[in-house]
Design a protein that fits this description.
CATH architecture of the largest domain: 3-Layer(aba) Sandwich
CATH class of the largest domain: Alpha Beta
Radius of gyration: 23 Å
Shape: globular
Largest sheet: 7 strands, parallel
Order of helices and strands: HHHHHEEEHEHEHEHEHEHEEEHEHEEEE
Strand order of the largest sheet: 10-9-11-8-7-12-13
Structural class: alpha/beta
Strand content: 15-25%
Number of strands: 16
CATH topology of the largest domain: Aldehyde Dehydrogenase, Chain A, domain 1
Length: about 425
């Protein structure tokens, strides 16, 4: 490795190594990739004490930086979360290998036989902030989909990400796959991010995972294509035909289970006909759970201001508003949504169908907590992020979404007249 002070040289070398590794990984067998992921999962569990020790250094760093409780929660690893990481690696390992999957196949009158098959994207750059488990998720999904990956973890998770990365490399070694297939940028220097965003000769796509500041920077400055969501401004509309017990259960889980994740509810919209009954009960329950409710037309903690609509709190705060009906909810969401996840709670099929039909968020839900907006909960084993754009990947980005396709065309001496 080059002198770590020469960021351009360091990143160029990482890029060259990743490009070379991706060429070999693109045709690695499903069995070898499976073996690498299982060995990595075993290594994560065997080294859990070392990972927790590294995480303690990061937590101390986070305390010194004055991170919020929600951000500290994102950063923290304990044995339960490490078990979850291990389970995620195993789940990705057991999925069907997407590379080489035939998406379509047909014959032409000219004598051509044509197949469209999945193929890796190449080299993926992942830039993330405080959640060190992204190291495992991103490494696993890129490996499964035949892509080399360059991981640039946040300064807060520097030691944890390094300890997890060592386990992924152990997996590559055990399966005799190129060790450069999963690389971790070895510096906290922000100049490394700027380099990664412009490495068009080596990197095929960038995936940022983090707050609005990071994602905005990436979307503004990247010369490489980006899969990203800027914010998780998540709405829940409680219709007049909502089941009260379901509504209470879903709203409380969507807001309070973990407030610092992108699927946490940030705005509660309540039908005017139930504002004084179920609506008041929901607000009371949220406040009793320690949530600050910034309300309009409801008796909340404090009055809502215009700045509270379209705001991602990532904290024990929620905006709440009375709307006339489902169309009022749709109009509000269209204006303020970030196209991430929005939910309707209703027993009325017509209302639910209208909500699903007339909104175009990446994920739309009915009678289910928005905290399910996660690739693992969608059966993808893990996700590398949520994409809210409309090109290529959308919603949770799992292994299959990290592929493109190519056409394989066969003839028997066919010529074109």
């Amino acid at each position: 490795m080059k002198d770590a002070n020469d960021i351009h040289a360091v990143m160029t070398e990482i890029g060259k190594r990743a490009k070379a590794a991706s060429a070999e990984l693109a045709f690695a067998s499903a069995e070898r990739k499976h073996a690498a992921l299982i060995a990595a999962a075993d290594a994560v569990w065997a080294n859990r004490a070392a990972i927790i020790e590294a995480n303690q250094k990061d937590l101390e760093y986070g305390r010194q930086k004055g991170l919020s409780p929600a951000m500290m929660d994102r950063l923290m690893l304990d044995e339960g979360r490490i078990r979850g990481m291990m389970d995620g690696l195993r789940a990705v390992a057991e999925q069907a290998d997407p590379v080489g999957e035939v998406l379509a196949e047909w014959d032409m009158p000219s004598g051509l036989h044509i197949r469209r098959v999945r193929t890796p994207l190449g080299v993926i750059g992942v830039i993330y902030e405080s959640r060190p488990n992204v190291t495992a998720d991103a490494g696993a999904l890129c490996l499964k989909s035949g892509n080399a990956v360059i991981l640039r973890g946040g300064s807060e998770s520097f030691h944890s990400s390094g300890a997890i990365h060592k386990c992924l490399v152990e997996g590559l070694k055990a399966a005799n796959l190129p060790l450069d297939a999963i690389q971790l940028v070895p510096t906290r220097d922000r100049a490394a991010v700027q380099e990664l965003l412009t490495m068009v000769d080596y990197v095929d796509v960038i995936v940022p995972r983090g707050g609005k500041g990071l994602v905005g920077l990436v979307q503004r400055e990247a010369r490489v294509p980006v899969f990203a969501h800027l914010e998780g401004i998540v709405h829940i509309f409680v219709d007049k035909d909502a089941d009260p017990a379901k509504a209470l259960r879903v709203v409380m889980n969507a807001k309070t289970r973990r407030t610092g994740i992108c699927g946490a509810a940030e705005c509660l919209l309540i039908h005017k006909d139930i504002a004084e009954t179920l609506g008041a009960d929901l607000i009371r329950a949220l406040m009793e759970a320690g949530v600050e409710v910034r309300a309009e037309g409801l008796p909340g903690s404090v009055p809502a201001g215009e700045e509270d609509w379209g705001k991602e709190y990532l904290d024990s705060i929620i905006a709440a508003k009375v709307v006339d009906d489902v169309d009022g909810a749709i109009a509000h969401i269209r204006r303020y949504s970030s196209s991430h996840t929005d939910c309707v709670i209703t027993e009325n099929d017509a209302v639910a169908n209208r909500f699903f039909e007339r909104l175009d968020s990446a994920i739309l839900m009915r009678n289910a907590s928005t905290q399910f907006a996660d690739g693992g909960e969608f059966g993808m084993g893990a996700e590398i992020g949520i994409a809210t754009g409309k090109m290529h990947a959308r919603g949770p980005v799992g292994a299959a979404q990290l592929t493109s396709f190519k056409y394989l065309v066969e003839g028997d001496g066919a010529t074109r007249p």
